[in-house]
Amino acid sequence: MKRFSFYFFLLFAVGLSTCKPARKHYANVFYMNIYSGITSMDPAFANIQANIWVISQLYNGLVQQDDSLHIKPCIATWWQISPDGKEYIFHLRNDVYFTDNEVFSNGKGRKVTASDFRYSFLRLVSKDVASPGKWLFNDKVDTTAPGRGFEALNDSAFRITLKNPFPPFLQLLGMQYCSVVPHEAIEKYGKDFRSHPVGTGPFKLNYYDEGEKLVFGKNPGYFETPLPYIDGVDISFTPGRQNEFFSFVKGDLDYVSGIDPSFKDNLLTRNGELKEKFTGKFQFQKSPYLNTEYFGIVVDSNIAKGSPLVNKYIRQAMNYGIDREKMLKFLRNNIGTPGNYGFVPPSLPPFDKNKKIYYDYNPDMAKELLAKSGYPEGHGLPEIKLTTTANYQDLAVFVQRELQDIGINIKIEIVLPPTLSDWKVHGKTSFFRASWVADYADAENYLSLFYSKNEAPNGPNYFHFKNAEFDVLYLNSQNMVDEARRDSLYVKMQDIVMDEAPFIVLYYDEVVRLESNRVKGLNPNPLNSINLKTVRLQ
What we know:
Blueprint: H1 2-18, E1 29-33, H2 49-58, E2 63-65, E3 71-73, E4 76-81, E5 87-92, H3 114-125, H4 135-138, E6 150-154, E7 157-161, H5 169-173, H6 183-189, E8 203-209, E9 213-218, E10 232-236, H7 241-250, E11 255-257, H8 264-267, E12 283-297, H9 312-320, H10 324-331, E13 337-338, H11 363-372, E14 384-388, H12 393-404, E15 410-414, H13 417-425, E16 431-437, H14 444-447, H15 468-478, H16 483-500, E17 503-515, E18 519-520, E19 536-537
Parallel strand pairs: 1-10, 14-15
Antiparallel strand pairs: 2-3, 4-5, 5-7, 6-7, 8-9, 9-10, 11-17, 12-16, 12-17, 13-17, 18-19
Helix pairs in contact: 9-11, 15-16
């Protein structure tokens, strides 16, 4: 790998200094690659980032998120929320049309109405569709209300009725799952709608060769004038991040998300800055990403039988015994923020205002807690097994060495990602590597992992964490319409979780992007989504 990295960057440096772009491209078309490929262009299957990137160019919903994840109008120009927080009425624009397609009369796209949203949302929760996004509505919408909770009051007014108030509901509606689709296209294409998208977005499908190429053209009838600025988007599906980097270096691509670990030392300094020899060759961006990387701990003694980690003081000692700043500097070239602030990323309200440090590096405190646990200097403490995947072995080894210094011995077990996923869900490992990427920009999305009724395998509470006070606060926050009061409950909930320490937060990830110098207006955001409608090419 080191030899490959050396030769790659030798070519990289030479290419950047001597080669002109090998581009046989149109000047006003944005070129990108999705090395993982996509599985669907149907919003009902916007469950992986690659699909989301594509779907967001083709469709719109009632609302949308700006680059700071604030909710803004989209097809709905404004909305009303009832005082009890259970009823939402959205008032729609009258100038939004589906793109021209043979499914419509004379091939001309028709106007979007409230009935289209009712159809789209009922389709999302349909058992026949089996959308992975059905969770958005299934336990929240009052199906006993008119229209089964989704009611078209007229062509331009759409009502959603909830069983109980859910303050982050607008954030849910900003997800790509909630895009509007035409019933005519679903009826004609059926399951093949995945490759025959018909939406309202800034771009429309021009060409698709599955696994090879995807081309979008500007939607001339798009309602957010004068957007978009570019004429189209050309997406390739060349596998492998290394190949993607080669294409970017040659000038065949305008954009790369993320850096292959084998290249980071050649590209970045230890402090996470672009090395001087690459300055000006392309644009380099880092920004917060709503992704918490952590080692999870099962705290229920009935599940983790015989595990010393059911002892809270040992868990707390482990949290104090890791120098996260050193870990990020030497293993990730300072891509990310040390995980000292809590499970919820510190960039997310309300934790962005007062960044409380829960566990900084304090080996003396770690040793005190270890003694308090009944294992002074680790004497008599059984070896603890940490289950991870090969991609995170370096982090596991670092933690192993750090904890060994305070008297805690860790054995590392490497398994395949599907195996680790299965073991987490079914409680077959008591100490494991995991991450949580936000589905929507609200702290509830992170704190819900510790609600007792979300215990795995029925939910994402892989820690088997149960705390009566936490549950009461969580349920109260669900019914709290007042944002300031709800935020105060979120803070109390995080305090409880951090004291109990059913995890070790390693770091909060960052979005890293490389862009060609001709790209302007492609702004980063904490969900690492791509908004191409505002991009200009120079």
